[in-house]
């Protein structure tokens, strides 16, 4: 949004407009959904001025009011569905992973959580007729899990029909049998994955803000950001805030982080995929004692919760634990060198 439009808001002059844009507030909508304290701190303006700016932005952007269910239904038609390329899992999820939602995938070590994030970083780039969203990926890596070699494997593991279409769509001459052309295609996929390593929880929160800026920069581009992957969401928070005495502070920071991620999804029609660690509940005498980390804060913030469970050999059980409009259920997939595959 040009600066002269921001200057139409009360209390916003050229200098304040520059500060707002520099801190990622480039549209009326992004200002309208901010809190006065947040805007005041980031743009270095008084809290009273920040409140006036936010209220004016809300009126101009027409957010915060009531609307009919029919209007909500019409808006939901803009939501994209990102395919797992596994029919059984897609059916379980009502067509795939939704944009404008947080999808949480949790499970024990080696269950395949990171494999899911890598696969979605590939699948999101595919055209809609192949279940993709024709967009790029932001990958926040907190456990040093991102491996370009896995992207290589997964691109090579795509169906030949999809590979042939990708050669044509990206103006690469070659075929699935041409190693040099496939290598060029893999590099093109990697170019659309923006990776940042989070060194601690504060850095991870900062990267979510940077992800919002990056999504804004690419919104009108040929490759808009269509998925943000955080692998894993809770690792740093769990390591840095130990004991009941620090639980409240941890949950507050985690809550803010989740809301920052959700804002990206809402503003830019982006899918948010987070992985989560687990712990064993010692009080559980029956059934699976595995519990997701993060408590009620994460449970309420996640729109879809998926539990990955190991099975025999490379099989994994994909269990839908919670969803607002879908029944609980299970599907089976395989984690192979070529990526996530049907049973």
**Helix-strand topology string:** HHHHHHEHEEHEHHHEHEHHEEEHEEEE
Shape: globular
- What is the CA-CA span between the terminal residues? 48 Å
The largest sheet is: 9 strands, mixed
What share of residues is helical?
Answer: 40-55%
List the strand order in the largest sheet.
5-4-6-7-3-10-11-12-13
List keywords for this structure.
single chain, alpha/beta, 13 strands, two-stranded antiparallel sheet, 9-stranded mixed beta sheet, 44% helix, globular, 343 residues
Question: Describe it for me?
Answer:
It is built from 15 helices and 13 strands. With 343 residues, the protein is an alpha/beta fold. The N and C termini lie far apart (48 Å). Helix 8 (113-123) crosses helix 9 and helix 9 crosses helix 11 (179-191). The protein has a nine-stranded mixed sheet, sandwiched between helices. A two-stranded antiparallel sheet has the order 1-2. The longest helix has 22 residues, at 247-268. It has helices spanning 3-6, 14-22, 28-32, 36-43, 47-61, 69-76, 87-92, 113-123, 148-156, 160-169, 179-191, 201-218, 235-240, 247-268, 295-301, and strands spanning 81-82, 97-98, 102-106, 136-141, 193-197, 225-231, 271-276, 278-280, 290-292, 304-310, 315-322, 329-336, 339-342.
Summarize the helices and strands and which ones pair or pack.
Blueprint: H1 3-6, H2 14-22, H3 28-32, H4 36-43, H5 47-61, H6 69-76, E1 81-82, H7 87-92, E2 97-98, E3 102-106, H8 113-123, E4 136-141, H9 148-156, H10 160-169, H11 179-191, E5 193-197, H12 201-218, E6 225-231, H13 235-240, H14 247-268, E7 271-276, E8 278-280, E9 290-292, H15 295-301, E10 304-310, E11 315-322, E12 329-336, E13 339-342
Parallel strand pairs: 3-7, 3-10, 4-5, 4-6, 6-7
Antiparallel strand pairs: 1-2, 8-9, 10-11, 11-12, 12-13
Helix pairs in contact: 4-5, 8-9, 9-11, 12-14, 14-15
């Amino acid at each position: 949004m040009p600066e002269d439009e921001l200057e139409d808001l009360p209390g916003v002059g050229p200098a304040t407009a520059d500060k707002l844009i520099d801190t990622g507030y480039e549209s009326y909508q992004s200002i309208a959904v901010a809190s006065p304290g947040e805007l005041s701190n980031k743009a270095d303006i008084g809290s009273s001025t920040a409140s006036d700016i936010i209220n004016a932005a809300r009126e101009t952007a027409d957010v915060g009011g009531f609307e009919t269910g029919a209007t909500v239904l019409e808006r939901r038609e803009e939501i994209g569905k990102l395919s797992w390329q596994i029919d059984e899992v897609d059916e379980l999820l009502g067509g795939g992973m939704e944009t404008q939602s947080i999808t949480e995938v949790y499970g024990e070590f080696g269950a395949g959580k990171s494999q899911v994030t890598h696969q979605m970083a590939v699948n999101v780039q595919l055209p809609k007729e192949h279940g993709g969203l024709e967009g790029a990926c932001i990958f926040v890596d907190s456990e040093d899990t991102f491996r370009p070699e896995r992207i290589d494997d997964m691109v090579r593991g795509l169906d030949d029909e999809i590979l042939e279409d990708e050669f044509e769509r990206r103006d690469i001459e070659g075929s699935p049998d041409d190693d040099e052309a496939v290598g060029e295609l893999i590099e093109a996929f990697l170019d659309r994955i923006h990776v940042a390593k989070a060194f601690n929880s504060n850095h991870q929160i900062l990267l979510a803000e940077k992800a919002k800026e990056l999504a804004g920069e690419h919104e009108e581009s040929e490759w808009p950001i269509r998925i943000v992957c955080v692998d894993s969401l809770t690792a740093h928070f769990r390591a840095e805030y130990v004991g009941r005495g620090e639980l409240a502070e941890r949950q507050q920071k985690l809550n803010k982080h989740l809301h920052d991620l959700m804002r990206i999804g809402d503003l830019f029609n982006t899918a948010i995929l987070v992985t989560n660690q687990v712990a064993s509940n010692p009080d559980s005498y029956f059934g699976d004692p595995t519990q997701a980390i993060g408590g009620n804060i994460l449970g309420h913030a996640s729109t879809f919760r998926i539990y990955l469970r190991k099975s025999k050999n490379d099989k994994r059980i994909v269990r839908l634990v919670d969803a607002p409009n879908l029944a609980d259920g299970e599907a089976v997939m395989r984690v192979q060198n070529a990526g996530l595959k049907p049973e």
